[in-house]
Structures are given as C-alpha cells and as structure tokens.
Specification:
- The complex is a heterodimer of chains A (about 375) and B (about 150).
- Chain A is about 0% helix and about 50% strand.
- By secondary structure, chain A is an all-beta fold.
- In chain A, a hairpin with a 4-residue loop joins strand 7 and strand 8.
- Chain A starts with 10 loop residues before the first strand and ends with a strand.
- In chain B, helix 3 packs antiparallel against helix 4.
- The chains are: A mainly beta (about 375), B mainly alpha (about 150).
- Chains A and B meet through strand 13 of A and helix 3 and helix 4 of B.
C-alpha cells in the first residue's frame, strides 16, 4: 500500500553508505525489484563510463543499524565502451545493459553469478536507455540513431526484434514503459516525448501521441521520465520528464514524466490515465499536461524518479544536488501541484546522473554521480 | 523629356524610340538571352541530379526487391526457416515495396515511405540475425554529422 511520507515537518536526507569501485562516472543505478522480497537482501546494479556494470548487495538486514554493502560482481568484458543504462527485469532475474558500443547485453542472475546470455545488436550507434515492460516480456532500447527498438523475450532466453520505431528526429534519450499497460514512452533530444502503442491488428507499433507543443511540452531536451505508482501520472524533466506508473491506489494523479533533465529546468507532470490504445483521436491526445514545477533547479536536471512507495519525486541535477518534491497538501485548487520538500546540496562531487527510490523501502534512495560513486540515502520527515 | 509621341499611321516607330528605350531593350535582350541560357544549364544540371538521385533510389529499392525475392524463395524451400513474426514482416515489407511510387517523382510521400521501408528492413535484418548492405547503403549517422 502506498504510504505517502510527506508530512509537513522538517525533512532530511541522511547519508547512509557510499559504494566505491567504479573508475569513471557512474551513469545509472537500478534497484533489483526483488530487493527485500521474501528475505532477499537489497541489490543494486550500477553502470559506468569505465565500461563495467557492478552489482552491489547489502548484507542481511536483521540488525537495526544499517548493514554494509559489498560489491558482489563486476560485469566486464561484455561492452567495449561506456555502459550507459541498466535495468532489471521485473522478476529480478535478468539485467539489461545498454552501451555506447551500440549493443545491449542481457545478463542472467543465477546463484550469485551473472552470465551474459544474449547480445542484442541492431542500433547503429550509442544505446542510451533500456527498459523492461511490467510483465517482463518486452524490452525497449533507444539510441542516438533516433530509433527505438522493441524486443520480445522468447523461450530459451532468446530475443526477437518486434519492431523498430521511427519518428524522433534526434537522439532518443530514454525509454520507459507504463506500469500497467504495454504502452511505451520515449524522450528525445528533439524536445518531444512520444507515446507508442501496439496496433490492435498486427505487431506494428505506432506513435499515438507526441507531447511537444508549447504550453504543454518542453522546449528543450527531455532527459528522463518517471511514472507514479499507479501509472496515472507521469513526470518529465525537461531535460527531464518523470513518469511513474502507479497502481490502483489512492493516487489519482498520473504519472508525471520527468524527462531527462531539462535545460529549461522544469519538471512537468502529465495526466496519463487514459489508455492511448483506446484514444479516439479528438482534442490533441490522450495524455494531458497537469502542471509544471519550476524555479527550483539552477542547472540541468539529469534524473527524475517517482517513488512507488512514498509518492515522492526525487531529482538529480547538474548542480550536484538532490531535491525531493511532494504533492502539495495545502493545494486547494482542482489541479494538482507539487512543492519542494528538501534540497540536498553537494550530494555528489559532480553532476548527479541518476536517482532511484528503493522498490520496497520508502525511505531509501540511491544516487549516482560524475564522481564515480553511488550513495545510499535515507529520507525522513517529521510529522 | 519628349512629350507623348504621336504616331502617324505611316510610321511604326518614332525615330527616338530606339534611343529612348535603348537601356530597357538592351536589358530585356540580355535578360532573355540569360534566361534561355539558364534554362538550358538548369535542365542539364537537373538531369544530372535527377539521374544521380534516381539511380540511388532505384539501387536501394532494387536491393530490397532482391532481398525479398531471395527470402521468399528460401521460404518456399523451407517454410520453417524464419519465425512467424519474421515472415509476416517480410510479407508486409513486400507489400510496401510493390506499392512504392517509383514512377512518380513528384509524389510527396516518397521520402517518408522510403524511411519506413528502411526501418522495416532494419527490423527484418535483426529478426533474421543478418547484416546486409552495399557500398552506397544509406546509414542513419552519415560521416561528418555532429550531434551533441
């Protein structure tokens, strides 16, 4: 059950751990979705400019004090260039890693070991983002070659290319699936966010909506997206879009896209309640702009993530800060609005490239930076 | 400035007309000569450019047609060669190829249809796990293209 942490009292982001080991900037972190499920310890994957992916595991959580983290594995020799993105499959058994060498590797986690079971080729240049859909059957990848590829997991851990999506006119920065529907969202350097859905009659995918118009779109690069827990709101950060999908909880908002850090330093929240495949085509598109959060970031926002557990939005930015936003409880207007809950300066000694909330524990946040380290934080707020 | 000329029915032009209109008529003559010359040069250049792009387009479409022909023959020999999805994709690609307006150079959809053919071809290559191209094959990132 989503528990909103967000009282009105003072909020703090306490530093818990620092994970060192990478020898170049860390581009992304991803919590294994099985963390803390059925007694399993928390596991984190990180990908870096040093061409490796590291797997970190927290030791048993029996004691009340925060147990330590160790590096379980270093996945190297698979990519010949920077590993730019990593994402776990929903059951936590597979890890997809996208690299500047234009390939995506799939790793299988079996008994503490990680084996590379597949390499997906097809993109013409740097892969920027990888994302699994909620059922773990489809994987999306996007690249500087302006295309988005959708792959289907076949029996025997084979991957078959389902479709190549054309439409963006520039580098595609991020892809993300809706939490409950097979609807894909892509964010690009061409300042648009595109929503893709499968044709009812075939295995062709087409763009059902482009979020770009002034007034309800970004005017510069959309960097990341995140959906809220239910998927009915998405946040984007221009230069960041956040989209979080939410479950059918009390959350009515839909995902706000936090698109890749925006150069216009804004977060935009979008209403993503309507199923794009049921859209009849009137009035501009199924998803609508809800609100814009601006004025808080001084430099590019590189990452946005909407927690599935506590309803908070975290952002990581080029000014080395992490900021947390929550829905404004004092807002009486009919539309939704967000307010900043806290700002953590000098969170990293360099750009904060990625922020990710823990899938189960509403207090934990992981961040990755240009300083080559990963930090684990604990969020607390007085009521 | 001479006043309005009265033209007598016996004389077509005033003797001053040629002088007065000299600049204008010379200009006009030059313009006409230039225009004719330009049209000729333009046609020649246009023919060259047309030949070049026509050739490139024909080469690409022909390449795809060749690939589809081979794949179809292979499938006839062994229908289990490619996955069901790959076969559907090849069929769809074949239809798109046949519908391509090769003989209407003024068709506005030429570029878009070509882009969608290219993308489908890439997807089929991935499905069949092959990589095909020829020396003139267009790539998304052409040499010299910079993006930040």
């Amino acid at each position: 059950m989503a528990k909103k942490l967000g009282g009105n009292g003072a909020a703090r982001l306490g530093f818990l751990h620092q994970l060192e080991g990478h020898t170049d900037r860390v581009w992304g972190v991803a919590w294994n979705p099985a963390s803390r499920s059925g007694g399993a310890p928390s596991m984190l994957a990180s990908c870096s400019g040093d061409k490796t992916v590291r797997i970190w595991e927290q030791q048993s959580t029996v004691s009340s004090s925060s147990p330590s983290w160790t590096c379980q594995a270093v996945l190297d020799e698979s990519h010949s260039r920077t590993v730019r993105a990593c994402d776990w499959s929903p059951n936590g058994k597979l890890l997809a890693t996208g690299s500047f060498d234009a390939t995506t590797s799939i790793w299988e986690h079996v008994g503490g070991e990680f084996d590379c079971i597949a390499t997906l080729e097809g993109h013409e240049n740097e892969v920027k983002s990888v994302a699994w859909n909620t059922s773990g059957t489809l994987l999306a990848t996007c690249s500087r070659d302006k295309t988005v590829w959708i792959w289907e997991l076949q029996p025997g851990n084979d991957f078959e290319c389902v479709s190549v999506l054309n439409g963006h006119t520039q580098d595609v920065k991020m892809v993300l699936w809706h939490p409950s529907r097979d609807v894909l969202v892509s964010a690009s350097y061409d300042n648009t966010i595109k929503v893709w859905a499968e044709d009812r009659d075939g295995d062709d995918w087409r763009c059902v909506q482009t979020l770009a118009e002034p007034g309800w779109g970004h005017t510069s690069t959309v960097w990341q997206l995140s959906f809220n827990m239910s998927g009915d709101q998405m946040v984007s950060c221009r230069n960041a879009i956040l989209g979080n999908y939410a479950t059918t909880q009390c959350q009515k908002y839909f995902v706000a896209f936090a698109s890749w850090p925006s150069d216009d330093l804004q977060l935009m929240v979008w209403d993503s309640t309507v199923d794009p495949s049921e859209w009849t085509g009137n009035g501009g598109g199924p998803w609508k702009h809800l609100c814009t959060i601006s004025g808080h970031h001084e430099r590019t926002i590189f990452s946005v993530h909407w927690s599935r557990t506590n309803g908070l939005i975290a952002t990581g930015s080029a000014d080395d800060c992490i900021r947390i936003f929550a829905e404004d409880p004092t807002n009486v207007a009919s539309s939704v609005s967000f307010c900043k809950v806290l700002e953590k300066q000098k969170a990293h000694e360099g750009d904060v490239n990625s922020v990710r909330w823990h899938p189960k524990d509403p207090r934990l946040l992981a961040s990755a930076g240009d300083d080559g380290v990963i930090k684990i934080w604990e969020f607390e707020q007085d009521l | 400035m001479p006043g309005p000329q009265k033209r007598s029915s016996l004389r077509q032009d005033d003797i001053f007309d040629a002088v007065v209109d000299l600049e204008t008529s010379l200009f006009q003559q030059g313009f006409d000569d230039g225009f004719i010359s330009g049209v000729r040069l333009g046609k020649d250049e246009g023919r060259e450019v047309g030949l070049k792009s026509g050739f490139e387009l024909g080469e690409e479409i022909g390449f795809y047609r060749g690939c589809v022909t081979i794949w179809k023959i292979a499938l006839e020999r062994d229908s289990t060669l490619f996955s069901a999805r790959a076969q559907r994709s090849i069929d769809h690609f074949d239809e798109q190829l046949r519908a391509y307006p090769l003989t209407s150079p003024e068709d506005e959809r030429l570029q878009d249809l070509l882009a969608s053919l290219r993308v489908r071809f890439k997807a089929i290559m991935a499905m069949l796990s092959i990589r095909l191209d020829y020396s003139g094959y267009p790539k998304a990132s052409s040499a010299g293209e910079i993006s930040f």
